[in-house]
Amino acid sequence: CLMGPTGIGGSYIGEDVEIKGTRYGGTGVRSAYPFHLEEFPYRMECGTLNIVGIAGLLAGQKWLEKEGMENLHDKEMKLWEKLRKGLEEIDKVTMYCADSAENHNAVLSFNIAGWDAGNVGTMLDVDHNIACRTGLQCAPLVHVQLGTDKIHGTVRLSIGAFNTEEHIDKAIEAVKTIASFERKTINNKDKAERL
Fold first, then answer.
1. First and final C-alpha spacing in the chain
2. Which of 93, 130, 92 has its CA nearest to residue 110?
3. What is the pLDDT of residue 1?
4. I want to staple 57 with a disulfide (CB 3.0 to 4.6 A). Which of 4, 9, 182, 183 is the partner?
5. In order of start, what are the domains of the chain with their CATH numbers?
6. Where are the beta strands (DSSP E) in the chain?
C-alpha cells in the first residue's frame, strides 16, 4: 500500500515498449483538432487526469520514504503477532492464518464458534468502534473449502501504519466479550407460536 487515495496507481513502462490505449479521448486543448498525434504517454490519457489522486499518491510516497517501509512493516507485524497470540487464548475463536509472522502480511481472519461473521463484525463496529471486514473477501471457493461459507465467511482485522498496541488490546478484549455471550437462537416454530 502506497498510502495514496483509492483509485490511483501507476506503472512504469520503458521507452522501448510499445503499447496501445484501450480508450481514446481527452488530450486537453488538442481536442479541438480533428486528429490526435500518437505521442506517448499522452495517447494513454482518455480524459482529465485524477490530479487530486496523483497529489495524494505523491504525498503518501513521501511519507512512506520518511517513515521507512521496513520500519512500518516491522511495527505492523509485531502488532499482528500480539493480536494472533491474544485471539489464540480465546476458546471459541478459530483463526485462519500462519503460526508466525514470517512471510505474512498484517491481516488476520477469524471466526467465533456459533456466530455468523457478519454479526460479529456488526458488534465490533457498533459496540466497540472497531473497523473490520466480514464476508467471503472475494474468495468464495476458499470459504467453501474451509466450510466458512455457511456462516458468511470470516471476520478480518487489518493492521495498518497508524494502529497502536492499545488498538490491539481493545480488539482482543472486544472479541473476548463477544465470544463470552451465549448465542440464543429461536426457531421459526417457537417464534410463530408466541406471536
1. 52
2. 93
3. 67
4. 4
5. 1-67 (no CATH), 69-180 (3.90.1150.10)
6. 93-96, 107-112, 133-135, 154-158
Which pLDDT value is given to residue 91? Answer: 95
Q: Which H/E stretch holds residue 87?
A: helix 69-88
pLDDT (0 to 100) of residue 194: 47
- Predicted pLDDT of residue 31: 63
Q: Are 133 and 121 in contact (CB under 8 A)?
A: yes
10-residue averages of pLDDT along the chain (195 residues): 81 82 61 66 74 93 94 96 98 93 92 96 98 95 93 96 98 98 60 49
Q: State how far the Cα of 76 lies from the Cα of 64, in Å rounded to an integer.
A: 14
- The grid coordinates listed for 20 are 496501445
Sheet with 154-158, side-by-side order of all strands:
93-96, 107-112, 154-158, 133-135
**What pLDDT does 195 receive?**
46
CA dist list (Å): 188 to 114, 155, 195: 18, 27, 11
pLDDT of residue 141: 95
CA angle in degrees (0–180, nearest 5) for 15-19-13: 40
DSSP E strands, 29-174? 93-96, 107-112, 133-135, 154-158
Of 86, 179, 186, 96, nearest to 137 by C-alpha is: 96
